[in-house]
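User: My instructor asked us to take a sequence, write out its structure as tokens, and then describe one feature of it. I'm not sure where to start. Here is the sequence I was given:
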Amino acid sequence: MSKPTSSKTKADSRTENSARRARILVLHGPNLNLLGRREPEIYGRATLADIHSTMEARARARGVQIESFQSNSEGELIDRIQAAATEGIEFIIINPGAYSHTSIAIPDALRGVAIPYIEVHISNIHAREAFRHHSHFSASATGVICGLGIQGYEFALDAALTRITQA
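Assistant: Let's start with the prediction itself. The structure tokens for your sequence are:
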């Protein structure tokens, strides 16, 4: 009697492997759609598209899918976080923008879905106006990166990739 053989083709294996690719969601809060134009002396000249391209290439090289979502609406960000829980998102990188200092609902949603996340800020929020010094996100974040410009996103991605591949 012969051994059973697999009926899977190479194409089936590639589809199965891509279906199992780890996924990271990058969330951008209010006014980050204006990057590159808004206060370049604070935020630099890079756009969200520039940030996404850099992160996507880095993630793809590690076999990880990255998705970006920007909204000026607190409710839309919460809806996206809640959807992430059912989509197999393994890690979130979030720049909550001004919601860092005002939103209770977004960090509640992040805790509710129990997906680990890193909080990123392009500027050093502790070196700016006093109202920016406190973030409602930091206490439950895996890590916080601020003041390193857009390179902070790359550091957050590297940390997320390390955690995903070690899991």
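For the description part of your assignment, you could build on this observation: The longest strand covers residues 89-95. Try explaining in your own words what that tells you about the chain.
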